[in-house]
Specification:
Layout lengths: L3 H8 L2 H57 L12 H11 L6 E8 L2 E10 H15 L1 E11 L4 E10 L2
Antiparallel strand pairs: 1-2, 2-4, 3-4
């Protein structure tokens, strides 16, 4: 049993069949150009967007501890604690407790604090936190990087604000 369309096609002269075949191929190409290629471009854009979102997430996960080190806008101490206690507590809350290796009085109510293998971003967040929340002034700081790993050795002299 033949289909009517095939019967019709079979009865066409060879020249008309070639023209019809060329038209079908052209229609297929137009279909690909107008539908399939735009869909492919949209898929590529979605993949690029996903890749960018994943990079943004990785960045946020790296910077998260720094933001946490800045902490909430609340004082770390009650105002009655000594400078040593305030600095030690803030260092522990900022994730620098293990890197804090010591502190020594430096005169004028100042305190010199030493860190070894401290995360640079956490250290900067900690200094910002002490400055903004506790009103401490950074009198002197010496920070030395360690082989590009983001870890530093640091010595910071802090003094209570006036």
């Amino acid at each position: 049993m033949k289909l009517p369309l095939l019967d019709w096609y079979g009865k066409l002269p060879p020249r008309d069949r070639r023209i019809l075949l060329a038209g079908a191929v052209a229609a297929g190409l137009i279909l690909i150009l107008l539908i399939v290629l735009p869909l492919q471009r949209s898929l590529d854009q979605a993949r690029d967007h996903l890749r960018q979102q994943q990079q943004d997430l990785a960045w946020m996960q790296r910077i998260g501890p720094t933001l946490a080190a800045a902490g909430p806008e609340q004082p770390v101490s009650s105002g009655h604690d000594s400078l040593v206690v305030v600095i030690d507590r803030a260092a522990r809350e900022s994730g620098l407790g293990k890197a804090l290796t010591g502190s020594t009085p430096a005169g004028n109510d100042a305190l010199r604090v030493q860190f070894e293998n401290a995360d640079f971003n956490l250290l900067v967040g900690w200094l910002h936190r002490l400055s903004t929340q506790q009103g401490l002034h950074i009198e002197d700081a010496s920070i030395t990087g360690k082989d590009g790993s983001g870890l530093v050795n640091a010595s910071v002299q802090l003094r209570p604000g006036a």
